[in-house]
């Protein structure tokens, strides 16, 4: 086996890490952590240190680490048939079975799944499908996409544009001109502290109406949003938000894309976030929880309404000229089939609801008396703690203090628990695997309290 020092040297010399401050990495400020194993909520590095991963990788390892059922399904598929493409009607038992399993679980109005590799490419697909859809319908001007500030939809050119976070725009000359942003449903950060949730929801819907009026409804193709804002701060929507937004979109014949890369397959305690909030999307983006990240795979689930236009459109415009070499990759599909079976067998959606509620209530109760804790929020097995300088005014800390990253570092150092300092604002996020037990939830809560107190 290679020595750790050797690997660390090769790492610095050869590996361009994503989302990384390259100079800090080169100086050794970020260290090297070489992960070598995992089981349940835990990962282990090459020094033998065990860490509790309360963020499930990048909120993706939903069944937990080390599930042999999925590993064996992957190995079996690789031995039988590692690859064949899915162009012009080709498929494999795994990809066809997985498509059926997804449609069986998806909201009732959903029709077909287009497979990709990542959440980003699935969202790129969605935008192209929406454009194709409007071309079929002879609406060549109806092409702009509305996204929300603080939304996260990927790191591609279009998806980076849809993302409403400065870090993903700055220095990349994004967003592209076809994207317009509207307000985030971020009630905690409302301008007027006296405003009721209902009034805030109305304000979000009115602001969307105003944007549509400014741009012209005939220029807007779709609205994309995560049922719960994820990377932008883990922000569940205020009650009634989706109903109000959907009414506006329907009025202007604007398609709704529900980006369920994080919320799909159980994280909110329902199979889909769309079920959870009574959303009726035209397209749903899935990735992460589809395979629990045991292999890369994503999908765009299209509704009956969209499918009908696409299918008829091909007679008019010709075949859909959009495909990835690895669309519906058999190994990813085999992982997906085994993963979805395991989610059913272990009743992980129920556990996400029950243990997630226990976790969220426990966090709230345990952190309530700490002065820098401004907000504790969450849904299912998804939670966030937002830090503030002043509880009454919700004043931000100076970003240079990096309070969120400091708490995440303290959590890791003091308790060997991984949480995520979210990229914008002083927010610590938790998204443990859906198999978390109550005892593990208690450990995370205790570790969070200890870390926050050490920084406060
Ligand atoms: N959409 C959402 C809601 C996400 O959270 C992410 C990733 O975190 C993506 C899209 C992009 O997925 P990927 O990183 O697989 O490209």
Automatic annotation (TrEMBL):
SUPFAM superfamilies: PLP-dependent transferases. GO terms for molecular function: transaminase activity. PROSITE patterns: AA_TRANSFER_CLASS_3. InterPro entries: Aminotrans_3, Aminotrans_3_PPA_site, PyrdxlP-dep_Trfase, PyrdxlP-dep_Trfase_major, PyrdxlP-dep_Trfase_small. The keyword Cell division does not apply. Keywords: Aminotransferase, Pyridoxal phosphate, Transferase. It comes from the Bacteria. Its cofactor is pyridoxal 5'-phosphate. Pfam families: Aminotran_3. Signal peptide: none annotated. PANTHER family: AMINOTRANSFERASE, AMINOTRANSFERASE CLASS-III. Belongs to the class-III pyridoxal-phosphate-dependent aminotransferase family. This is Aspartate aminotransferase family protein. It comes from Kiloniella laminariae.
């Amino acid at each position: 086996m290679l020595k750790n020092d050797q690997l660390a040297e090769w790492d610095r010399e050869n590996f361009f890490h994503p989302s990384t401050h390259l100079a800090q990495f080169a100086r050794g400020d970020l260290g090297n952590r070489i992960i070598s194993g995992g089981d349940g909520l835990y990962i282990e590095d090459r020094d033998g240190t065990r860490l509790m991963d309360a963020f499930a990788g990048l909120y993706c390892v939903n069944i937990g680490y080390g599930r042999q059922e999925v590993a064996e399904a992957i190995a079996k598929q690789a031995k039988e048939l590692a690859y064949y493409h899915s162009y012009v009607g080709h498929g494999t038992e795994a990809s066809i079975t997985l498509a059926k399993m997804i449609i069986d679980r998806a909201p009732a109005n959903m029709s077909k799944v287009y497979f990709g590799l990542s959440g980003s490419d699935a969202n790129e697909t969605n935008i192209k499908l929406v454009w194709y859809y409007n071309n079929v319908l002879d609406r060549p001007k109806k092409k702009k996409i509305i996204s929300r500030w603080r939304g996260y939809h990927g790191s591609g050119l279009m998806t980076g544009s849809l993302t409403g976070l400065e870090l993903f725009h700055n220095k990349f000359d994004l967003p592209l001109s076809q994207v317009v942003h509207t307000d985030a449903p971020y009630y905690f950060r409302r301008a007027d502290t006296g405003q009721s949730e209902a009034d805030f929801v109305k304000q979000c819907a009115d602001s969307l109406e105003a944007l549509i009026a400014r741009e012209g409804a005939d220029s807007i193709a779709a609205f994309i949003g995560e049922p719960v804002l994820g990377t932008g701060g883990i922000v569940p929507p205020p009650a009634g938000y989706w109903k109000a937004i959907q009414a506006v979109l329907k009025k202007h014949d604007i398609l709704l894309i529900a980006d369920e890369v994080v919320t799909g397959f159980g994280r909110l305690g329902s199979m889909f976030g769309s079920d959870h909030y009574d959303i009726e999307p035209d397209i749903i983006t899935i990735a992460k929880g589809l395979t629990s990240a045991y292999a890369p795979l994503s999908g765009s689930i299209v509704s009956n309404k969209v499918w009908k236009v696409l299918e008829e459109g091909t007679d008019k415009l010709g075949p859909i000229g959009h495909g990835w070499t690895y669309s519906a990759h058999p190994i990813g599909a085999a992982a997906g089939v085994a993963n979805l079976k395991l989610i059913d067998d272990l009743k992980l959606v129920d556990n996400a609801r029950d243990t997630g509620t226990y976790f969220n209530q426990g966090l709230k109760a345990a952190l309530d008396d700490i002065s820098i804790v401004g907000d504790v929020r969450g849904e299912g097995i998804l939670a966030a703690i937002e830090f503030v300088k002043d509880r009454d005014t919700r004043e931000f800390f100076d970003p240079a203090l990096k309070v969120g990253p400091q708490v995440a570092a303290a959590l890791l150092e003091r308790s060997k628990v991984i949480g995520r300092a979210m990229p914008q604002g002083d927010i610590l996020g938790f998204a443990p695997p859906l198999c978390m037990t109550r005892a593990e939830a208690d450990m995370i809560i205790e570790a969070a309290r200890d870390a926050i107190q050490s920084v406060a």
